[in-house]
Design a protein that fits this description.
mainly alpha
């Protein structure tokens, strides 16, 4: 299991901050998708925590879905 952390600061409690924290941690860990995310939010997110949670979840799986769109294998054309 690979573990990484990230702290992101901002002037407003925006969901994008949660997504950026997840993206930063995944980059530090060298992974393209996260099996689990532990998201710690400040009290400023209390009015709408669900938006930050959804943004973090999307960030954790976004790179995974991008990789899923890539071909699983490549066929090499030979001069047969």
């Amino acid at each position: 299991m690979t573990v990484a952390t990230s702290i992101v600061l901002g002037r407003q409690a925006l969901p994008a901050l949660a997504a950026q924290a997840v993206t930063n941690a995944m980059h530090k860990a060298g992974i393209t998708s996260a099996n689990a995310v532990l998201l710690l939010l400040t009290s400023e997110f209390a009015s709408n925590p669900q938006a930050a949670i959804k943004a973090a979840a999307r960030a954790a799986s976004a790179r995974k879905s991008q990789a899923a769109r890539q071909p699983a294998f490549l066929l090499k054309k030979t001069g047969c």
